[in-house]
């Protein structure tokens, strides 16, 4: 009877299994006039190979749950970052404030990291300059 069930069911539903075993035993002993008052499952011995397989299965289930939790957290973070980027893009001063905040965070860590901050206007100007057509003047040398 125990072998027909998954171990989790055996552990959670001992009472139901005890009743089933009681019914099976009663069918066999009734014709002899023997009455069994109670059947109780005390311990279940699992072969070593089965224990290893169950441990691997439990580990796989824990790893799956951890990955799902991590993926959910990454999804939430990406949504929050997208919302923050929309807010920052609406107000350029917010980006500068965020940069200053980042500088204070880096400075508080007491490390040797060197951070060079450039205002976004410099980057925009450099981009425009790189996209502008280059005009070359030719002069004759005498």
Features of this protein?
0% strand; mainly alpha; 3 domains; 142 residues
Structural commentary:
- The chain is mainly alpha-helical and about 140 residues long.
- The chain folds into three domains: about 1-45, no CATH class; about 45-90; about 90-130, no CATH class.
- Helices cover about 65% and strands about 0% of the residues.
- The chain has five helices and no strands.
- It has helices at about 5-10, 15-30, 50-90, 90-110, 120-130.
- The relative contact order is 0.05.
Run of helices and strands: HHHHH
| Rg, Å, rounded | 36 Å
Give a quick account of the main beta sheet: strands, pairing sense, barrel closure. none
- Beta-strand level of the residues, as a percent range? under 5%
Helix share bin: 55-70%
Unreliable runs: none
Rounded to the nearest angstrom, the distance between the terminal CA atoms is: 109 Å
Task: Give the tally of β-strands.
Answer: 0
Mean pLDDT: 81
Q: Structural class from helices and strands? A: mainly alpha
The 3D shape can be described as: rod-shaped
Number of domains: 3
H/I helix tally: 5
Produce the secondary structure layout.
Blueprint: H1 7-12, H2 14-29, H3 48-90, H4 92-108, H5 120-131
Short description:
This protein has 142 residues and is mostly helical.
């Amino acid at each position: 009877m125990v072998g027909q069930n998954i171990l989790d069911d055996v552990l959670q539903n001992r009472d139901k299994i005890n009743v089933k075993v009681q019914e099976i035993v009663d069918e066999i002993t009734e014709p002899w006039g023997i009455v069994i008052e109670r059947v109780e499952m005390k311990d279940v011995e699992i072969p070593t190979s089965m224990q290893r397989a169950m441990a691997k299965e439990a580990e796989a289930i824990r790893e799956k749950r951890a990955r799902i939790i991590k993926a959910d957290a990454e999804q939430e973070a990406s949504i929050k970052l997208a919302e923050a980027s929309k807010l920052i893009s609406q107000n350029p001063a917010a980006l500068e404030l965020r940069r200053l905040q980042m500088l204070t965070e880096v400075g508080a860590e007491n490390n040797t990291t060197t951070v060079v901050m450039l205002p976004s206007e410099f980057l925009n100007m450099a981009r425009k300059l790189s996209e502008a057509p280059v005009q070359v003047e030719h002069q004759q040398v005498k």
